[in-house]
Automatic annotation (TrEMBL), chains A, B:
InterPro entries: GcvT/YgfZ/DmdA (IPR028896), GcvT/YgfZ_C (IPR029043), GcvT_C (IPR013977), GCVT_N (IPR006222), TrmE/GcvT-like (IPR027266). It comes from the Bacteria. Pfam families: GCV_T (PF01571), GCV_T_C (PF08669). Residues 22-268 form the GCVT N-terminal domain. Residues 291-363 form the Aminomethyltransferase C-terminal domain. This is Dimethylsulfoniopropionate demethylase. SUPFAM superfamilies: Aminomethyltransferase beta-barrel domain, Folate-binding domain. It comes from Sedimentitalea todarodis.
Length: 369, 369
């Protein structure tokens, strides 16, 4: 039987770049923040090879923004995360775990500090707007919280600097990692950060105003012809190799940041005001009892991982795999999984219950990049 | 080019009934509350015909529950909605618009009052859990808020009573509309309400515990053979004919309940404590300037409505269509659209910018059922 198609509806929002994505021959989508996110153009393996060798334009408009504006914007931002934001300056981007009152993760966005009283939170797949706005109201903060008409467009791949320079000028290469600058495109200001959901290098352009979306898409496509530019998207294989986590896949609100290996983005002791701080103090001190790990799975290419695959040792449960794919470059199955501390040491041999049967697997010291 | 497929991933959650849905030959999905929701089995028209003549089992596990439990559960529930809940008793279900501090709709769920201190909110497509939990924390309420392992399974169609009686006994027919009772299935308690997202009659079973999902699915399928039972799903054509709204399609957080024609579910004056009450008092008194209407669209069957189609009169914008389909029974295109008050009177002639060009359309007095 053919793979089920995705039924179109207004509820699954199109993006300012959807016309370009369709013209480029998108073959598969996922849904992310009630919006269409392409997942494949040629094939996942062809897209992967091309991403590592050339440059791609990604419609990641589904990374919606939650904008905080007003005198209490900074206070509210600190209430959301155990990362200490006191030294963050306008022009910086921070990866910030967002936690609830129990320390469970609600989202793992990038916070963009535009000014002392203005922030964008570039969110993963959950309606963080609801959490932030209800918090602002409940605590009577003087801050406006909404979703602006801002849609990120990513330029990723080793030739990203070359392409961006042609459209925005050479100074775009001066942007440092997780910093942003403001650049002109056809008379419009664009926030451009050196960031993105791959380890191949590149930028994210925060496109303000849907009307300028396709002109920018077309300008990048045109300028990149000699660089073999293609439409692309976050690549399953590459992101697992690189250990880039996916909220909803690799972690949920059941997990603390420490379980997700994000302890380095938590300053639980000094993040005064964070709603989940009390709950996290103990886990920050003692460490978690399970943690995400890179896992190598034996055998031929695994099928798609559409549910948690149990991890066992001698038949006893020790965790679960949440993302997995065959890696052509490393000639093995690469995976991300939550593993109990009894079995999380490097080179521990465990088993994974894949859909086609039990396979051998090994816990790795680090990801593949 | 073939319609884009939906990429499977753990993030798009399977349901306790997914194995049954797949065995029944699901052909299309949508994503709803980060979960798979079937949209088509044979064809939308065949499913529609069968729904109106027989009985269907629907996997609507994506109607996730937000559970409120504790001494402040009732107070919190009233904070969420402008519907006055004071006379609601355990055993009742209420359709409740949920609004933010500006009166904008955040969700349009069914609230199930299990006990004075325990509620389920059976939600439409947005992470209402985030709003409710942050509200509980911000206002320091004594209430537990979480998502329990409860997955609704709907039995819809004219033969729904016959089928349900075979599995749960004749007394299931005594359940009145939007009331519920507790029934036994294999030693497990099941909350069963007379409700559902069609106008063909039927029930929703709140299945508590994923492990009992497939046994119940199979028991219903087995018991319904002589009734021509089939796997089904909310049907686009039938729900438009019936005027059943879809959050994210027909309304967003830009719209008040009154704009959505839900004024009869608002008692803004007496719903003391509702967060959006102040903002809604004026619109409750003066009425909205635009409102959802049934709209009949001329011409051959319309294509799928995956974005707002502008409504115009003499070239001037007067609204937009958000849902549309060809209705075999009414031999016309049925649609739902937001229309400005200057053009919302019955029989007003307007135009709709469908993808294949401008078509004539007529505002109707009421929906088709």
């Amino acid at each position: 039987m053919a793979a089920p198609v995705l039924s179109p509806s207004r509820r699954l929002r199109r993006t300012p770049f959807s016309d370009g994505v369709e013209a480029a021959g998108v073959r598969a989508y996922t849904v992310y923040n009630h919006m269409l996110l392409p997942t494949m153009f040629r094939s996942v393996q062809e897209d992967y090879r091309h991403l590592k060798e050339a440059v791609q334009i990604w419609d990641v408009a589904c990374e919606r923004q939650v904008e905080l504006r007003g005198p209490d914007a900074g206070r509210l931002m600190q209430m959301l995360t155990p990362r200490d934001l006191r030294r963050m300056t306008p022009g910086q981007c921070y990866y910030v775990p967002i936690v609830d009152e129990t320390g469970g993760m609600l989202n793992d966005p990038v916070a963009v500090k535009l000014a002392e009283d203005r922030w964008w939170i570039s969110i993963a797949d959950s309606d963080l707007l609801y959490w932030v706005r209800a918090t602002a109201i409940g605590w009577r903060l003087d801050v406006l919280v909404d979703e602006p008409d801002v849609s990120p467009l990513a330029v990723q791949g080793p030739k990203a600097d070359d392409l961006m320079a042609q459209v925005f000028g050479d100074s775009v290469s001066d942007i440092r990692f997780f910093r942003f600058g403001v650049f002109d495109f056809q008379g419009r200001d664009m926030v451009i950060a050196r960031s993105g959901y791959s380890k191949q290098g590149g930028f994210e352009i925060y496109v303000e105003g849907s009307d300028i979306g396709m002109p920018l898409w077309n300008a990048l496509m045109e300028a990149g012809r000699a660089l073999d530019v293609h439409a692309g998207c976050p690549n399953l294989i590459e992101r697992i190799e690189a250990g880039l986590l996916s909220y909803g896949n690799d972690m949920t609100d059941d997990n603390t940041p420490h379980e997700c290996g994000l302890g380095r983005f938590c300053n639980t002791h000094t993040a005064i005001g964070c709603i989940g701080r009390d709950a996290l103090l103990r886990v920050a001190k003692e460490g978690p009892v399970q943690q995400l790990r890179a896992i190598e799975i034996d055998g031929p290419p695994v099928p798609g991982c559409d549910r948690w695959w149990p991890l066992t040792a001698n038949g006893k449960p020790v965790g679960r795999v949440s993302s997995a794919a065959w890696s052509p470059d490393f000639d093995t199955n690469v995976a991300i999984g939550m593993v109990r501390m009894t079995h999380w040491d490097p080179d521990t041999e465990i088993e994974v219950a894949a859909p086609d049967g039990l396979r051998k697997a090994i816990v790795r010291e680090s990801f593949w990049l």
